[in-house]
Amino acid sequence: MKHIARVGGERIFNRLLTLTNEKGEIRVCNLVATKAHSQFESALYCVEDSLDMFGHPQPEAVYTDNLSDRSFLEAVFPFLRKDIIPIEKYSHLEPFLLPSSVVIHIRHEEVAINAAMRSIIDHVPTDETEPDLVVGFDSEWNFMVSDDGRCEKGDIAIIQIAHSSGARFSISELCY
Predict the structure, then answer these.
(1) Which of 95, 116, 125, 167 is 20 to 30 A from 69 in CA distance terms?
(2) Is the entire prediction scored with pTM above 0.70?
(3) Does 41 share its domain with 107?
(4) Are 26 and 20 spatial neighbours (Cβ–Cβ below 8 Å)?
(5) How far out from the chain centre does Cα 65 lie?
(6) Phi, psi of 126, deg, nearest 5
(7) Are residues 71 and 18 in the same domain?
(8) How many domains are there within the chain?
(9) What is the residue range of 168's domain?
(10) Cα distances (Å, whole numbers) of residue 169 to 7, 40, 109
(11) What does the alpha-carbon distance between residue 112 and residue 105 come to, in Å, rounded to a whole number?
(12) 35: closest CA among 61, 62, 8, 72?
């Protein structure tokens, strides 16, 4: 984005909206000046119209990095609200608590992190009769926008690893 359409050294387009389908095929690619919904609203309505015109189903899920997009996206794609039960309806229910079989380990030191990784490796099945080991991995990091508009990924802030080994399930937050 930083190299597209500069006038007098200033960027004309600050954002790129990309909408893909479930196969990763691009349905909309829209250069916009701001991240305001008005900048790409008409493009999304065109997607809705083209899906109807060609007999395709409307989106059932949309992933965004901005929770404030929810009501806007539900207005453009009303199918997103289909079969959704607002959480307020069940606010009287007890909160979900982790079962006692779930153990959370937080590791900060390199030695402790390596030990946690070794314990996961120790659970890797060595023969076909052993149950499979399931591992979930997630990492989070901050990013900064430099003065010249370049996005720079910061250091990894946290890694979360969950694994199953028999009846136990543990979550490790490996903080750096």
Answers:
(1) 95
(2) no
(3) no
(4) yes
(5) 7
(6) -105, -15
(7) yes
(8) 2
(9) 102-175
(10) 55, 43, 22
(11) 10
(12) 72
Dihedrals φ, ψ of 152, to 5°? -125, 125
120 & 74 share domain: no
Q: Mark the ranges of the chain whose per-residue pLDDT is less than 50.
A: 167-168
**In a shared domain, residues 120 and 51:** no
What's the CA gap between 112 and 134, in Å, rounded? 21
Task: Specify the pLDDT at position 93.
Answer: 85
Q: Are both 64 and 136 inside the same structural domain?
A: no
Structural tokens at position 29: 């690619």
- Whose CA is closest to 106, among 34, 15, 174? 174
Say how far apart CA 70 and CA 62 lie, in whole Å: 9
Predicted local confidence at residue 167, as pLDDT = 44
Residues in the chain: 176
Cross-strand pairs, 31 = 16
Residue 18 CB partners (closer than 8 Å, separation 6+): 26, 28, 29, 30
Let me know whether 112 and 66 are in one domain: no
Q: Do the bridges between strand 15-20 and strand 26-32 make them parallel or antiparallel, or are there none, so unpaired? A: antiparallel
